[in-house]
Write a structure and sequence with these properties.
- Helix content is 41%, strand content 15%.
- It has 609 residues and is α/β, with parallel strands linked by helices.
- The two termini are 51 Å apart.
- The protein has 21 helices and 22 strands.
Length: 609
């Protein structure tokens, strides 16, 4: 308890004694490093909640003690984030946070939502705008739970593409005074809570008495959010991320009402602390286990001009996003489309695979201080201990073998660990699940391919394979097999998915099905697929095949991605939801990578160098 007070006191000192911002950075960084070690020692159970600050006239950072007290009452450890615009400093600070409260204050500059400034605009602080926008982006990139209050709510709406009323009295004439003159601890008008929303679940009542200290507010709602409360004049009083986004914003000041004794409003702070607790558990678990995405088509992005997997690019898998989501390892799939089956086309297909593999090595070399090529599960563990990400290599579509089995050994020497036998069309190896049957499963060459992959110790991947191909492989193989990116057909009838009978056969074989995050494979109505749908598929496979036979193969950068899980940075959301559903940490470790690495190790067996 005393150490928590020391951290809080140190943070408050920066607010009480203003310092020129350019001289503040070294002290902030030292404070942050000290706090990192203290968090580990004293906040094992208490979530660390960051509080954004305002700037005082002397360029110091200030926060109302009411935010601090509300967090303490809710069981959290409050830490004030001083106003700085150095992105690296903010990035270092936010790594220790489990939740974030974006506080009230001045106006958000209209340039952020593409409007000119009205004459009535007051209290615009460009430095704080940059600070808040950076802080919010860093937090949401990491899926840290966020509660926005007053300006914080408005900032959230703008950051995600919405707009604001710059001056409510001018632009939204109403009988309600949205800037009260009484104390913040007193409620002055009633808001109606929208039924079925997260806010309704938190406050447990259809109405609430709130205060009003703002002349700006939500106008056009940001994409991915819904309105969760309105005042009697129809004004938006609360918004929330939907679905599967732990971001909530309220137009009023609950910390003032809590100080006045409003126990209902205290639930908002208990909510953010509770959500932060789940996020903290997920982070701590990811620190101890090896997490693996078994299938990503990221090499297809390498041809983009200037692409660098070490930068936070627009694609779904790169090193910054892996770091944000605490993903340890990914299988980069060298994917090629099915082409004609003649000598010239085969030669080109083989050359394309070599080019893709070379591209992976080039990207790793560019970022060798942050990642490394992994062949064996032990490599992934070693790289994690070195603070680096593990890049495994897979190959999608056996067409890339060029109908020459000797290429299997050559590709394996270059680091290829699995081959997806086919893609969306039949090839010389087998029938695809989305093409007219040609071979009635495996061809003669396909049977030779399976035997050679068993001999070499390479994983056989049956994603995209037809049902007949699947059962041919199961009967022929002497090793466990994988479906690197396939979901449950019982929940989505796409032929790419695995039936319950196939899941049972896969379990008997000792293999593993990696749930794909592609909406078309998750829901019969693809538009409704989201993170919750992903969890349902995991639940189903666990029920049918068992906990030892399920994992994650995102198919990111190849069509994968759903609301709530749309990049490597979002994979930690799966862990959070599994924890909330009651899965043990041991079982989550299996789902998030352990099962796939177990099968890989078993198949490599005596072939390990």
């Amino acid at each position: 308890m005393i150490f928590r007070k020391i951290i809080l006191t140190c943070s408050l000192l920066f607010c009480l004694f203003p310092v020129k911002s350019q001289n503040l950075y070294p002290e902030l960084l030292r404070l942050n490093r000290a706090a990192d070690s203290l968090y580990t020692a004293i906040a094992q159970q208490q979530p660390v909640i960051g509080i954004s600050a305002s700037r005082s006239s002397g360029e110091g950072s200030t926060v109302s003690g009411r935010y601090v007290q509300a967090i303490l009452q809710s069981g959290g450890t409050p830490v004030i984030i001083p106003v700085v615009t150095d992105g690296n400093a903010l990035r270092n600070m936010i790594k220790g946070l489990d939740g974030l409260i974006m506080t009230g204050g001045g106006d958000v500059a209209p340039l952020y939502y593409g409007e000119n400034t009205l004459g009535k605009m007051v209290r615009i602080d460009s430095i704080r705008d940059v600070y808040d926008m950076t802080l919010l982006k860093l937090a949401t990139d990491r899926n840290i739970p966020v509660l926005g209050i007053c300006r914080g709510e408005q900032l959230i709406n703008v950051a995600f593409g919405g707009t604001l009323y710059q001056d409510i009295p001018i632009q939204y004439k109403t009988g309600i005074a949205h800037f009260q003159k009484t104390s913040t601890s007193r409620g002055t008008h009633v808001i109606e809570i929208v039924a079925g929303t997260k806010l309704a679940e938190i406050l447990v009542k259809p109405e609430a008495l709130t205060n009003s200290f703002h002349h700006q507010g939500v106008k056009d709602l940001a994409f991915g959010f819904r309105i969760s409360a309105r005042s009697a004049d129809g004004f938006v009083e609360a918004i929330e991320g939907y679905p599967n986004r732990t971001v909530l914003g309220v137009q009023f000041h609950p910390e003032g009402l809590v100080a006045g004794g409003d126990t209902a409003m205290l639930r908002l702070f208990k909510h953010i602390v509770n959500e932060a607790g789940w996020y903290r558990r997920a982070k701590m678990l990811h620190q101890r286990i090896l997490t693996v995405d078994a299938h990503s088509d990221t090499p297809s992005c390498f041809k983009q001009v200037g692409f660098n997997t070490g930068k936070r690019e627009a694609n779904q898998v790169n090193l910054p996003k892996m770091e944000e989501g605490m993903l340890d390892a990914v299988f980069f799939a060298c994917r090629i489309k099915q082409g004609t089956r003649d000598e010239a086309a085969y030669k080109k297909a083989v050359a394309n695979i070599y080019e893709l593999i070379d591209g992976i090595y080039e990207q790793v070399e560019k970022n060798k201080n942050r990642c490394g090529i992994a062949i064996y599960p032990e490599d992934a563990a070693r790289l994690k201990n070195e603070g680096k990400k593990a890049i495994f290599i897979g190959m999608e579509n056996g067409y890339g073998l060029g109908k020459n089995l000797s290429n299997l050994a050559l590709f394996q020497k270059m680091g290829v660990n699995y081959v997806t036998l086919c893609h969306t069309e039949n090839n010389e190896i087998c029938d695809s699940s989305t093409d007219t049957p040609e071979w009635n499963g495996l061809s003669d060459f396909g049977r030779q391919t399976v035997k050679e992959m068993n001999r070499l110790g390479m994983l056989i991947d049956v994603s995209h394979a037809s049902d007949t191909t699947f059962y041919n492989v199961i009967r022929l193989t002497t090793q466990p097999i994988v479906a690197s990116h396939s979901a449950a057909r019982a929940l989505c009838s796409h032929p790419h998915n695995l039936s319950d009978e196939q899941l049972k056969a896969l379990a008997k074989n000792g293999g593993v099905a990696q749930v794909c995050l592609r909406d078309a494979y998750l829901g019969n109505d693809a538009k409704t697929a989201d993170l919750t749908t992903v969890i349902r598929h995991i639940d189903h496979i666990v029920k049918v095949a068992g906990i030892h036979h399920v994992g994650i193969g995102s198919d990111f950068d190849g069509g994968g991605g759903v609301t709530g899980c749309n990049g490597s940075n979002d994979l930690i959301n799966i862990t959070v939801q599994l924890l909330q559903k009651g899965y043990s940490e041991e079982d989550i470790a299996k789902i998030m990578g352990g099962n796939f690495l177990r099968v890989l190790s078993e198949v490599q067996g005596k072939n390990k160098k």
